[in-house]
Specification:
Layout (H helix, E strand, L loop, with lengths): L1 H13 L2 E2 L11 H21 L3 E7 L12 E8 L2 E10 L5 E7 H5 L5 E7 L3 H11 L2 H4 L21 H13 L6 H10 L5 E4 L2 H10 L10 H5 L2 E4 L2 H11 L6 E3 L1
Antiparallel strand pairs: 1-4, 2-3, 2-6, 3-4, 4-5, 6-9, 7-8
Helix pairs in contact: 1-2, 6-7
Amino acid sequence: MKAHLAALALAAALTTAEAGQACEPKPPTPAAVQRSIELAERTRQALDASGAQVVLLARAGQDLSRHGLQWSHLGWAYRGADGWRVLHKLNACGSAEGAVYRQGLGEFFLDDLWRYRAGVVVPQRAAQAQLLPLLQDNARATRLHERAYSMVAYPWAQTYQQSNQWAIETFAMAAEPAVRSRAQAQAWLQFKGYEPTVLRIGALTRLGARASAAHIAFDDHPSAKRFADRIETVTVDSVFAWMARSGLGETVQVVQ
């Protein structure tokens, strides 16, 4: 067990992709690694008990309470032949690019968490059946992926794409076979009633963020909304609320 934890700690220390967090060379403590692994195990037990094949899985990697948000990052967890795997998009540390990663539950939660808890939403069974083969196919799972990354990407534009945005656009492609582009996926999401979170971010804050962080950009937002300090983006909380409201999924289950 000690050797296993040491290996996991080393892997976490060498990780160069994060979900919109600042790049800080901060190795995880043994206690943090232990808590992450314990959360991963509790989450595995909950997923096994759910009977689901595919779920939306969230973690609380940052304190976003000032924006009224509980969760920071979203991925698709699916039941594979070798156990549960998570497919999610991460921002390359210190850059304006992102990539899609396939990880185990332990890796997913080894991210210097703000709170050691997980959010789980089980989609409709029909949606799970559509998602499962797509998530296992690298080419299909990345068909709508855009490398250009902004943590506050506008939900109805295609200039950038953040992690949660990739997740729901991919869901749209799985649910509607006619979807072949990001624009079509976004049109489907609007048709199904998805509503992004509105963040109130002032001009000085936007200017400072853009100047100091490669992974934050605001130029894809409509000028009228941007100048009114109205920044709309895809958040985990908005996705969870939409899944329950639309009947596309169950209400969120919290594992802690």
